[in-house]
Amino acid sequence: MTKDGNKVQMARDTxxxxxxxxxxxxxxxxxxxxxxxxxxxxxxxxxxxxxxEDPAWLWHARLGHVNFHDLKMMGExxxxxxxxxxxxxxxxxxxxxxxxxxxxxxxxQANFRAEKSLELLHAVICGPITPDTLIGNKYFMLIxxxxxxxMWVCVxxxxxxxxQAFKKFKSLVENKTEYKIGMLRTNRGGEFLxxxxxxxxxxxxxx
Length: 207
What we know:
Low-confidence stretches: none
Mean pLDDT: 82
Radius of gyration: 31 Å
Number of strands: 7
Shape: flat
Distance between the termini: 46 Å
Strand content: 15-25%
CATH topology of the largest domain: Nucleotidyltransferase, domain 5
Number of helices: 5
Strand order of the largest sheet: 6-5-4-7
Structural class: alpha+beta
Largest sheet: 4 strands, mixed
């Protein structure tokens, strides 16, 4: 109920549920077994579109939002039984406008791509994972090399361990590949923006 924007309040032995405008939806007394019980009555379903005064809008909705030009033609040529001769509506359907709205296309490729190993790394921390590892690790840091697409996983007990894990990773991977880490892209989480992490990257020349 709160997910839909309603407000739930509990005071003494009463629970009150209100909608976004403050209108009370239900007022329930607590029972002896500490539950709030209420009997809800299902309202009679009403199809509002059947009482539209304009028949053009009614048939527009009934036929899955067909455009008014085709709707008029169906009536003139008697292509369907029951459709009256309709005049084209000057109004625009909000649902149709939203459905036909074109989005901007995604970029085919990133503005910058690495041309050698370790020139650009992507890093993100995931977790908490369930269940924990046997030694209590709840998170892991995933590092991806933009050039080779090679991935490394560093398991962590807590997010705060990411700095030490990255320092260890840097020494290991640079010694093995003889390349230097040039840039590090993250989701700008707090663990990557700490003073220690920032100073370390500046000192090592990592952008």
